[in-house]
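For concreteness, we quote verbatim a single protein encoded this way:
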Amino acid sequence: MHSFRAASSAAILLLAGAAAFAQTPVIANGGVLNGASFDKTGQPVAPGSLVSIFGTNLAAATASASSIPLSTTLSSVTVSFNGKNAPLTYVGHDPVNGDQINAQVPWEILPLVPPGTSGSTQVPVVVTRNGVASAPVNVSVGAAAPGIFTFPGGIGQAVAYGNSDGAVAAPGTAGLPYTSHPAKIGDPQTLVILATGLGPVANIPNDGDVPSVVTSPTVATPVVTVGGVPAQVVFSGMVGRDSTGKALGYVGVYQLNIIIQPGTPTGDAVKLQISMNGITSRPDVTIAVSN
């Protein structure tokens, strides 16, 4: 009897461990968002862009990708869009606030997007953890859906910096761990803005990779406004690899170089927006501007 009880206890522990191991991932309602803006207004996501997926039981631990090309598996987690596995940059487990996955929408779903300037289609997204799949959640996908990276969390100070000195376009008192000063109107050296969701580029890279060329411009040029005034867009696209094959850019991240035009308002928090595909990025992203 004693040995029988010991075996039963071991079996119970084994079954309990298996049950915990096989928890079903659940994607939150509306939990697949633009990875830069975290826009919750129903904005679609775009092929090639970065997205953040929120929910419960999405991951058992926290892990980040360490090399390019990105893998489609990270810490026993995979994500699929319309059955195509997505490259992963990060999986995070938070038992209090919920889990998060950062992924790139596969370029391969681009042909599913209806032709035109503002069409979108519904694509099923599934998260699989340790072989257990979530229920599919339909997500709107459009040709382009711009979002600007910020410090941090989708609103406030944009990730925008001088092309010549790398200083963030923020007040000197912004408290960022980077050199900062306002962007200057008419600066020919350009202001660099980092964004995602700007749609196809001339040299579409493989999923999880950057273009094989140094720079690959977007097929369509976005409209960028600073304080409501259109800026001159000198470049819009992705940064790829140099002649030695070294990656110079980041997967799913687009770079815009702009010249701020005369007549643009000045101040510590001037609105910065990108418009493409009939969609305008959220209105609460700002930069500092001076004459």
Remarks:
- Confidence is low (pLDDT under 50) at residues 1-21.
- The radius of gyration is 22 Å.
- The chain has one helix and 23 strands.
